[in-house]
Design brief:
This protein is of the alpha+beta class. The chain is built from two helices and four strands, in the order H-E-E-E-E-H.
Length: 129
């Protein structure tokens, strides 16, 4: 595999993992957003990666349920007549697992970029010698 091809593949991986990190951080940041029962809850984002000839790309974003979960909180200002409010249906444990996987993938792809750069520099040094 040529060095430049490896760089392109790793770069596409970095881009996809960065989008995944962004989606997970949005989910975590919005998991406690409260809405009234007449409104949709924040929808969890999931990144869809698709294969290309040389690497991957973001094929889209899948959104979770807008139904969320109903919580009984009659003192909340957004509570309906029955005392319910709507929260997003996001599991923090699952999101933390997703965050760790996305971080590791991002780091691994950056390591490939570093190794390819080092190999390219070593090849240039051989040509000068």
């Amino acid at each position: 595999m040529p060095i430049f091809e490896a760089l392109g593949i790793a770069q596409s991986g970095v881009a996809v993992y960065r989008k995944w990190l962004d989606a997970v951080s949005d989910n975590i940041a919005n998991m406690n957003n409260v809405t009234s029962t007449s409104q949709a809850a924040y929808q969890q984002k999931s990144i869809i990666a698709t294969a290309m000839d040389e690497g991957v790309q973001v094929g889209g974003v899948a959104l979770g349920s807008a139904q969320g979960r109903l919580v009984y909180d009659p003192t909340h200002p957004l509570a309906d007549a029955g005392g319910y409010v709507r929260y997003p249906d996001i599991d923090l444990g699952q999101q933390m697992g997703q965050l760790i996987m996305a971080q590791r993938g991002y780091q691994a792809n950056l390591s490939v970029v570093d190794r390819a750069r080092e190999a390219y520099q070593a090849a240039l040094q051989l040509g000068r010698g």
